[in-house]
């Protein structure tokens, strides 16, 4: 939908065209229209006002509209320009589009088409402005211990980590898969007074249950068949530093009381040894599971849960902090393109729009993989929507009421392919309440192709 208050410049040397368009657009209520009848006047207005759209005739008295178009594209590259052409002068229209015009409308005007084209152009402008705004924010790039984020939620987490600097409390990091829990655990360690001491990780789901105990607490030579030599436990390795237990939900119930005792008494005993050893490690645990629910289902010990969960850092899904997406995209694009030795200028506006509207079930990890694939696939200097290989966002599409082939039923006679195409286009248009952009997308053609077909099949008026 057009943004309220969009300001439009109309350039035409015929006063009646100016007033016609002004009336038509003003009636819509969301547009403020200014008019100019010469190139000089237009350029002056463009300097004084921030327009969201220019609609210009191609033939002004003694002046070429193409020159004006080129000037506007230079002076105000983000402002879409719609040009007006005489009915049937398709060549001129094509040339204008080649020079950067957004679209064209034919005189005499078809009001509905004018309004639709204007709405689309204004929408494009606001999209470009939004992307620009997001890009500017990139300059204020925020990164905290290699964690890229600027959203309020993530900044809240960073400031909590800052407050934990001098404390030794155990922290439970939770959040959906791929949200950066491991990075957060490292950040807690790196920002703490223990930073110079070891950061030791144990992934509870990666080690067989039978070996976990020995890994955690260590063992003496001969404690079990495979114990060929003494081994220090990981809890002891983390002396003075941080012990990170990833995927804590997978810690077997049989081991949970032993870990609890180690935390409470701050001591451990290696397997096969009868001497206890004191430990001094700060414990951070992480999981993407609902530990509280597991506690209520008796799949995780409640007492251990409370010991681990002194402070809880809950990482939001990427979908809930979309403002981090452009930063992350830029970060991954730079990192990956350096690795592939493939320099990139960036993403096309459409590609960024797609990234911003995707739901990211796999969160930052999925975004990283998507960018890696895009860099590998992209052929030009810009990453395009096709390189991203993401599904197109579908806004405003309601499920079709009819059957896909309903349009054929009314006609039992064989049809030519052309008749069939005409009938199918008509049916799709009806199904989407004549939303032509959506219809074009559903038909897999661009809007211009659809307009051409509508003209060809004389559907412009009826649909
Ligand atoms: N804010 C961020 N900035 C930069 N890189 C990030 C960020 N968040 C996540 N990543 C990257 O995304 C990937 C996944 O992050 P990480 O392994 O920390 O996720 P996780 O929450 O532990 O996921 P899982 O629950 O699946 O183990 C890693 O490559 C990590 O470096
Ligand atoms: Mg992880």
Can you walk through the features of this model?
- The protein is 46% helix and 16% strand.
- It is of the alpha/beta class and 463 residues long.
- It has four domains: 6-139, Response regulator (Rossmann fold), CATH 3.40.50.2300; 144-316, Rossmann fold; 319-388, Helicase, Ruva Protein, domain 3 (Orthogonal Bundle), CATH 1.10.8.60; 406-456, Arc Repressor Mutant, subunit A, CATH 1.10.10.
- A five-stranded parallel beta sheet has the order 2-1-3-6-7, sandwiched between helices. Strands 11-14-17-10-18 form a five-stranded parallel beta sheet.
- Helix 13 (325-340) packs across helix 15.
- The two termini are 20 Å apart.
- Mean pLDDT is 87; it is low at 394-399.
- Magnesium ion (MG) is lined by residues 181-182, 246.
Question: Would you summarize the structure shown here?
Answer:
By secondary structure, the chain is α/β, with parallel strands linked by helices. The chain is built from 20 helices and 20 strands. Helix 1 links the parallel strand 1 and strand 2.
What would CATH call the class of the largest domain? Alpha Beta
Structural class: alpha/beta
The domain count comes to 4
Q: Report the biggest beta sheet as strand number plus sense, adding barrel if it closes.
A: 5 strands, parallel
Ligand set: adenosine-5'-triphosphate, magnesium ion
Strand order of the largest sheet: 2-1-3-6-7
Q: Which regions are unreliable across 5 or more consecutive residues at pLDDT < 50?
A: 394-399
User: What is the name of the CATH architecture of the largest domain?
Assistant: 3-Layer(aba) Sandwich
What name is given to the CATH topology of the largest domain? Rossmann fold
Distance between the termini: 20 Å
Which word captures the global form? elongated
Radius of gyration: 32 Å
CATH superfamily of the largest domain: P-loop containing nucleotide triphosphate hydrolases
């Amino acid at each position: 939908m057009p943004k309220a208050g969009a300001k439009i410049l109309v350039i035409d040397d015929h006063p009646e065209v100016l007033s016609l368009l002004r009336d038509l657009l003003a009636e819509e209520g969301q547009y403020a229209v200014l008019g100019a009848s010469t190139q000089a006047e237009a350029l002056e207005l463009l300097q004084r006002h921030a327009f969201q759209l220019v609609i210009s005739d191609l033939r002004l008295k003694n002046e070429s509209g193409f020159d004006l178009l080129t000037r506007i594209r230079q002076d105000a590259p983000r402002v879409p320009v719609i040009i007006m052409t005489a009915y049937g002068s398709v060549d001129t229209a094509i040339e204008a589009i080649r020079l950067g015009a957004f679209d064209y409308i034919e005189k005499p005007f078809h009001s509905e088409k004018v309004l639709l084209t204007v709405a689309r152009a204004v929408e494009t402008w606001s999209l470009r402005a939004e992307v620009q705004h997001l890009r500017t924010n990139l300059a204020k790039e925020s990164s905290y211990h290699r964690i890229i984020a600027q959203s309020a939620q993530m900044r809240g987490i960073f400031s909590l980590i800052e407050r934990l600097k001098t404390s030794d409390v155990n922290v439970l990091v939770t959040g959906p898969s791929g949200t950066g829990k491991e990075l957060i655990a490292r950040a807690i360690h790196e920002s703490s007074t223990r930073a110079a001491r070891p950061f030791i990780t144990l992934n509870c789901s990666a080690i067989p249950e039978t070996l976990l105990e020995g890994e955690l607490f260590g063992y003496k030579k001969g404690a079990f068949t495979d114990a060929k030599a003494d081994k220090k436990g990981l809890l002891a390795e983390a002396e003075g530093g941080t012990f990170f237990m990833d995927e804590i939900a997978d810690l077997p119930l049989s081991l949970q009381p032993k870990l609890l005792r180690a935390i409470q008494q701050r001591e451990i005993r290696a397997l096969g040894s009868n001497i206890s050893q004191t430990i001094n490690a700060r414990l951070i645990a992480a999981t993407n599971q609902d530990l509280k629910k597991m506690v209520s289902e008796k799949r995780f010990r409640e007492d251990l849960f409370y010991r681990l969960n002194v402070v809880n850092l809950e990482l939001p899904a990427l979908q809930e902090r979309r403002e981090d997406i452009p930063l992350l995209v830029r970060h991954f694009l730079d990192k990956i393109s350096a690795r592939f030795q493939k320099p990139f200028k960036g993403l096309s506006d459409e590609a960024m729009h797609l990234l911003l509207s995707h739901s990211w079930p796999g969160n930052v990890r999925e975004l990283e993989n998507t960018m890696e694939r895009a860099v590998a696939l992209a052929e030009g200097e810009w990453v395009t929507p096709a390189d991203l290989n993401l599904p197109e966002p579908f806004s405003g599409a309601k499920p079709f009421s009819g059957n896909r082939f309903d349009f054929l039923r009314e006609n039992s006679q064989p049809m030519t392919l052309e008749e069939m195409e005409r009938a199918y286009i008509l049916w799709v248009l009806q199904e989407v309440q004549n939303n032509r952009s959506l219809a074009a997308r559903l038909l897999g053609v661009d809007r211009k192709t659809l307009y051409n077909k509508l003209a060809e099949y004389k559907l412009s008026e009826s649909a």
